[in-house]
Protein 1
Amino acid sequence: METNSETTSTGAHAPYTRTLGRSGIEVSALGFGCWAIGGPWQGPDGNPLGWGKVDDEESVRAVRRALDLGVTFFDTADVYGTGHSERVLGRALGGRRADVVVATKWGNLFDEERKVMTGGDDSPAYVRRALTASLARLGTDYVDLYQLHLSDADPERAALLRTACEDLVREGLIRAYAWSTDDPKRAAVFAAGPHCAAVQHRCNILQDAPEMLAFCEESDLASINRSPLAMGLLTGKYTPGSSHASGDIRSAPPAWLPGFAAGRGADPQWLVRVEAVRSVLTSRGRTLAQGALAWLWARSPRTVPIPGFRSVTQAEENAGALHFGPLAEEELAEIKRVLAT
């Protein structure tokens, strides 16, 4: 990872940067995930899919503080808060849109008024409709990285979506595209397109993704890491029995969200693993969260973790990881040894 010694208007040094695969688009090595600032919303079954109540003004302040600290990559989705996350992000960026790289996603259907996700649509015709709506909510005329949000979409259908994305690139509506999926075989379908730039996938110390990281390396793609802090488990704020308020997805976790149990909070076995690596991650003055982000940077030169946030304090802590950089090789090896036992 290379550094940039240029000084920002706030006096802070510009952060480490990454390039989004073959696109040439440069971003800060740390992105900010905007799922949480979308506020409460539900799935078709009535269970929460958001992170609980949010203060929109605090969200705006947090985005702008992240910008001041050198974060230039923001990842959202049309379905987060059923459109609310995109609206808040667009307002927060305001006149600084040209200074950042914006990623959003499509594929899910939702009722914005009722705050309910209602299904999915993997048709090529829907891509353009979804993008048009996202552009309006974000207050922009282009998206830097447009991502398919249906992780298990049919590969043959996805090939048609890849073609649709290439059309959008030619029209200048998007600069590049990606698939949010944990399946390298599905990711390969999009990777066959010349303007595919990344794969968004789950990766953190507790849930490594060696096959996907290898695929990104082989395919010259960026690895955008969702759940880099294991949905909060790697922040250090959890103890056995910790609970979540209603409206938080972790209070009634779906099957794809391990590490939590309905009504029982964080899984004690996962917390034991967190404690096992705490001393290594918090060495050299890092917080636990900053150490977890540093592990991802050390894990691969293609990783761009996108931790969530809901406050200025969280934004400052996450952005602070940029000034420490990646773990040293011996620290990475020590974590591997500890977790293996």
Protein 2
Amino acid sequence: MQQHRQKAKDTLISGALYVVATPIGNLADISLRALAALEAADVICAEDTRVTAKLLRAYGLHVPLISLREHNEQAMAEKVIERLKAGEIVVQVSDAGTPAVCDPGARLVAAVREADLPVFSIPGASAVLCALSASGIVSDDFYFGGFLPAKKNEREKRLQELWRMSCPVIVYETPHRILDTIDELCLLPERTITLARELTKTFETFITGSATMLSGCLKNNPEQVRGEMVLIFHADEKAHHQENEAADFERLLHALAEHLPTKQATQIAMQVCDGNKKDLYNRILEIKNSN
């Protein structure tokens, strides 16, 4: 293991920024390459230096830490660029998971790239993929919505937007807002939801059901309203089916427009759906004119 860690360390480049993913709960979920980068770093930019210090102590590492948060990210970027130009290795971490995704780091990366200096990513834990992979959802795509808004009106509006999506949707929520959010979901059309909490930790829990079921479960089990929360809104199968039907019908219109006169193509299209004749005629004419 030490041999592989040393090999990873030997590949690191001086004067480069390394964006390093750290464990989201279980300290064992860190890669040898991440450890090599942390060990080789001249300085580590941390979201909370106290949190990162615990990680370093767990692996016997002693590296200088500087705080990099949203409010000082732009200013700190200038200092990081100076260090990189001096040939130092700088590592960027967040408190947990992959930096620059719902955490500070993106502005730093953008500034370093704009300065034409190298940036490398060392992948690792991600609450989004961790929750999705263990949810049992079968889907080729999903939408990640980040943290839901803290204000009630903004959150309700955002939830309505997300609810209209047919693909699975993943969002983060905090323990002190989770009950309010679930109750707001109860007012929307029924859709299966998975709540994943305390991922990779001792009390990791997955609860799947309707919003009403989740609301009752959380209110009857206060211990479940603790820790980091990931919500997954399962795919809206009805909306997905309607989208597929619309796509199939559009392909039919293209085929009719290609091989038949507009009037005849419209008559056949009318037999397949209950659409407005004028609208269908205009759509077929539009397809013909675009070819």
